[in-house]
Amino acid sequence: MIFRDATIADLSTIVAIYNTTVAGRMVTADTEPVFVASREAWFYAHSPKKRPLWMVEDELGTIGWASFQSFYGRPAYDATTEISIYLAPEQQGKGYGKQVLQYCMDNAPKYGINTLLGFIFEHNIPSINLFEKLGFEEWANLKNIANLDGVERSLKILGKRVG
């Protein structure tokens, strides 16, 4: 498995993978597919030196992507980031999620990151199980804060100290 810094040329692949999760209503709070142009500012908010956005690949092609995003945007929280992991649908269920999450945990301190947070819908049991298997704990449960097609959903924040 290869982790490399994403380039702007990868943004269409990143968006395509992300959009595969919208209809399932388990992974993202977006209710409509996003567009490359709408994600450019998000892309440029990442930095290979501080807030990486990685493409995850193997010899056959793209597995998915992972990123660290600043939490809350204030200096006192600089060592805390939200982690995002998205795998292409055909790559799910093969154990890649665990490998990607472990890689992110192992490498976070190199970027000055001491705390990782996962924002996961309470009904997304596979993602919660993955994070908990690698030592993340529930730090918050925001009850019924999202409305997905008329159904209120809760958001769990899972956290882990890594540095």
Describe the overall structure:
With 163 residues, the chain is an alpha+beta fold. Helices cover 21% and strands 36% of the residues. It contains 4 helices and 7 strands; from the N terminus they run βααβββαβαββ. It has a 7-stranded mixed β-sheet with strand order 1-2-3-4-5-7-6, with helices on both faces. Helix 3 links the parallel strand 4 and strand 5. The longest helix is centred in the middle third of the chain and has 12 residues. The radius of gyration is 15 Å and the shape is globular.
Explain the layout of strands and helices.
Elements: E1 2-5, H1 11-19, H2 40-44, E2 53-58, E3 61-70, E4 80-87, H3 96-107, E5 115-121, H4 125-133, E6 137-148, E7 151-161
Parallel strand pairs: 4-5
Antiparallel strand pairs: 1-2, 2-3, 3-4, 5-7, 6-7
Low-pLDDT residue intervals, each spanning 5 or more residues: none
Number of helices: 4
String of helices and strands: EHHEEEHEHEE
N→C terminal distance:
24 Å
Q: Can you summarize the main beta sheet?
A: 7 strands, mixed
Protein structure class: alpha+beta
**Strand order, sheet with most strands:** 1-2-3-4-5-7-6
Shape: globular
Our estimate of the beta-strand percent is 35-45%
Mean pLDDT across all residues, rounded? 97
* Rg for CA atoms: 15 Å
Total strands: the figure is 7
